[in-house]
Amino acid sequence: MCDLPVFKYNPDPVRLGVIKKERTHCPVCQQERAYVYTGPFYTTAQVRGICPWCIKDGSAAQRFQGTLQDYLAIEGISPDPSTPHTINYASDVIDELLERTPGYRGWQQEVWLSHCNEPCAIIDYVGWKEIAHLQEELMPDLSDIQSRWNISQTELQGLLTKPGDIQGYLFRCVKCNKHRLTIDAN
Questions:
Q1: Bridge partners of residue 115, in order along the sequence
Q2: 85-113: burial string, b at 16+ Cβ within 10 Å, e else
Q3: Cα–Cα distance measured from residue 110 to residue 100, given in angstroms and rounded to the nearest whole number
Q4: What is the pLDDT of residues 84-114, one digit of tens each?
Q5: Taking the domains of the chain in order of start, what are their residue ranges?
């Protein structure tokens, strides 16, 4: 089996460096595999060497009672159980994102952006150079980032580099293809 599984919300986990071509004996399926998952996995178990196929079918999350994303880091999810979520996701969508989608690596806490009432697909780690042509499309996110970080557009353009101390994470809506952006710092 050499074709990697396809993930709706992370279409190129190899480019993101969370699935690597490296031999592993998967602790879930007990098979020797040519690819290994090296991204985030939220579980109390100490586990390494999970193969992409056990992520795709959900068996890794089930076996180790873990998730591949932080539930509270999904945009629109309220950390307070008494406060309603701002986005009402279908439960199967959340299950797919948490249990069957490779994560990505952020400097601090990964955030999973959404659009059209569904999680977006993570596309790439970016600096300003990689997103300058998307400036108009990303303006709502850029304005929010400038406000939260208390920086100007010019400062953001100078600080956002790939790789760099301030890193961008580019997402794309799985329904309408609109791009979204979030950033964090080391």
A1: 118
A2: eebebeeebbebbbbbbbbbebeeebbbb
A3: 17
A4: 778 888 889 999 999 999 999 998 889 999 9
A5: 1-105, 116-186
